[in-house]
Structures are given as structure tokens and as C-alpha cells.
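Async update (no meeting this week)

Hi team, since we skipped the sync, here's where things stand on the single-chain job. The sequence we agreed to prioritize is pasted below, unchanged from the tracker. I ran it this morning and attached the output directly underneath so nobody has to dig for it. Comments welcome in thread, and please keep replies under the output.
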Amino acid sequence: MTHENFQQWVIEDDFCAGRPDWDKAGANFSDNIKTYEFMKLRVLNAGHQILANAAEILLVGTISACMAHPSISTFFRKA
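Output:
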């Protein structure tokens, strides 16, 4: 597996000609899109950046290889 199973597609609920039926495909509509943007930037991007920094130092090419690397995965494992 190269990624987690979680998916989230959040769209600002502000359409000039009616809302499309994208919720049938799993999209979420929100009046407060900034909350979702903040969460993505702070949680997802920050976590990937921490992994990427360790990977760069150890010359590891991908995030999945980073998590398989014994020095890096140990660092992120709970005690």
C-alpha cells in the first residue's frame, strides 16, 4: 500500500447556479472551508514535512520507504 485509505473532498458551498450533486460521489460541502484548509495544512502537510525532512537527511526517496526505514519508523513508534 502506498497511501492511507482516508479520502476527503471538501468544497465550499457557494454556487451561483445551484449546487452540483457531487455529494453522491462522496464530496462534502461546507460554509466554513477555512477550517478544513487549516486542518489539512497543519495536520497532513506538517506530518509529511516532518517525514520528508528525515528522509532527506537519510537519502530515502519516498514517504513509504521512509516509514519502512528502521531509524525513522522507530522515531515515530509509540512507546
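Quick observations from my side:
The chain has one domain: 10-76.
The radius of gyration is 17 Å.
Reply here if anything looks off.
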